[in-house]
UniProtKB/TrEMBL annotation:
Region of interest (Disordered), residue spans: 108-266
GO cellular component, one term: membrane
Compositionally skewed regions (Gly residues) per UniProt: 236-247
Organism: Streptomyces minutiscleroticus
Family per record: Belongs to the metallophosphoesterase superfamily.
Keyword Zinc-finger: no
Name by which UniProt lists this protein: Calcineurin-like phosphoesterase domain-containing protein
Amino acid sequence: MVIVFLLLVLALLAVLHWYVWRRLVRDTTAGPGPARRIGTAVLVVGPVLMLAALAGGRMGMPFALQRVLAWPGFLYMVLAMYLLLALLVGELVRPLLRLFLERRAARAGGAEPSRTAERDGGPAGAGTAATGPAPAGTASAPAAGPASAARPGGGETASGAGALGTVTEEPAATGPGTAESGRAESAADGPAAAGTAGPAGAPREDAAPAGGASATAARGTATAEPEGSGADAGTAAGGEAGTGASGAAGREPSAAAGADTARPVPGGPSRRLFVARAVGAAAAVAAVGTVGHGTYGVLRGPKVKRITVPLAKLPRAAHGYRIAVVSDIHLGPVLGRGFAQKVVDTVNSTNPDLIAVVGDLVDGSVEDLGPAAAPLAQLRARHGAYFVTGNHEYFSGAEQWVEQVRSLGLRPLENARTELPGFDLAGVNDVAGEDEGQGPDYDKALGDRDRDRACVLMAHQPVQIHDAVRHGVDLQLSGHTHGGQLWPGPLIADRANPTLAGLERYGDTQLYVSRGAGAWGPPTRVGAPSDVTVVELASRRA
């Protein structure tokens, strides 16, 4: 069953990493290359480091190697988690960004034809010149050059259809009459041919309208006159000139149309790549910023939090008694001696009457972490420092750690109680000790006490509150939850514990849960800042 569970976990990790790779690596690169290879390598090596960091201690890995793997492995774990969350949020942003870009492109595309129309509709537009009245024919006459010489016997110049670049394919000439007729029809195609034969150069009355044959000429179509006709030279020369003028005019709109077609269509590859890179970059910045801020918050040390807890049975003489509550320091491959010193300095700065260390001090053996825990010997309080085990002590050799903290000057309360001025202080083992026959024993710790005295109980896990209520405890001090440590962890941890963090009442018993001073796994907290809490007891008789 365990193997099946592990396989399911590995399969889920593979699917999630494939999604992150697709969105953050494949979709943001134009194709195979160094960037894609580096991104793929990171998303392959990262999970291996993460699994090694998680399982290193339990696999008996040398502590020096654990320290090497812990930092990159745990930081990758938390970074990958927030990258995944940011990319999932990006799935909501992605279609909105694409829609915005498409609308902006549509507005830009609508403005382009207007600018093109303004450019083509001006007085110098080639299309207008080709279809206009007299100026078109007049302008094209000089372009013909010597080829526009007078035809034999007629004095006509070849400027009609030839000047407009229009050549009509006709049957082969059968005689002079046919040729003359063809020339007359060609000359008649232009609306107002300035160089067209006629009395005193007057315009032809039967000229075609401007939208007729001249429109054909404006589109740059060409005609060839029958071979052997007398108008060959003139028509050919005029055709070349007309085609040059009108063809240039005809090509300009085509070029504009081609540019329009070349513009990337909405949803094209370049736009998809831009959206993928924008969302990927935003996700990366959000994840790195979140992890960086959360890691800094842990490494700088816990902040001091103060609360006041009134106890009905507390005598007036004990009013204002201060207990510094410290939980979940989690010394290990990541948080070492330097971090322990920060916690000790923070606790001592509060000048407490008593220090309560409520479990999960370490993640490792005395052999590996004994030097890291040495600063605990510097803890100072008027009535001393007390310690109870947490679940992680039973993963690390609880009996050895109980002796170690005793040698450092702390008093372990293993299902035991001590009488202090004004109240009783009791402590029970963590429920994880039941597997080793060292679980909590409430009768031993609380059974024969005087119930007229106030009682404060140290118990690592909040779930132990129900036994505390049955034994008439006034206040239970706990840790264990870390406040969820990494959002959205609080949503899950809140369902697994009666109290996630802070002070709550259960019948006549109050429960205070600290978020803890350190962090397990990644040295990072998001939405659950670390703390050392000073609980000030208040007497209702004061």
